[in-house]
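Hi everyone,

Forwarding the result from last night's run.
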Amino acid sequence: MSNVDQIVVLLSLVVVFFIYKYIRLHFKTKKIEYEFTSIVNHAFRTPLTRIMWISKELEKDLPTNERLLQLQNLNNANMKLLEIVDLIVGIKDIKNTTGYFFEATSLRDIVEKSITKYREEINKKNITFQVSAFKDIPLLTADLKKITFVIDTMIENAIIYTPQDGKVLMDCIANSQKLTLFISDTGMGLSMGEKMRIFSRFYRSKRAILAYPDGMGLRLYLSKQIVARHGGSIYAKSKGINKGTTFFLSLPFKK
């Protein structure tokens, strides 16, 4: 084979390689677009359907206490829609450094307020929710809103994926350099593959979808980005399927 022939073959291989990469990227992009559209469609449809149903109920001549309950349900559905919008916008803005406001923050206050948000769900499932006293835990320098989102996500996950009459334990330890918050549950646990992918964008296992169809696979992804921006880490441990999960959140003390 002459040098010219070798060059032609080489160029042909290069062209084939780039065509292959383009086709693969194209289908990968299409797959992501399809997954995103499906997730968003389902996520919006549930609260919107609920709002329509509640609106029809409010057209009826209801007793005052029942009307107030339906109005509260309507407000909850609206808040769910706003949360979905915030999640979608968060994909674009989460790494924007100008969007972070760092201040002295009490981890204990964040945890207490978060538990209050989910108290109804905790009571419905009769979950034993234990929280330590968090003694001698100093203030953190953090973005209050974003770290609140992370802790809300950890607590919500523990509640959603823990069965009726289950247990959840929260505690925090600190040294001179960092604090580590952990939350353990007696829920569905994680397989090895799930542990490796759980913080990926849009990822939800089949078991998670069956347990909670309304998830978007974004909260843990965004949480990881937020924690990284704070110079910390977030990760999960589990002994296997149906053996519970423990999420760890480590944040440094810094000025």
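DSSP finds eight helices and seven strands in the chain.

Cheers,
N.
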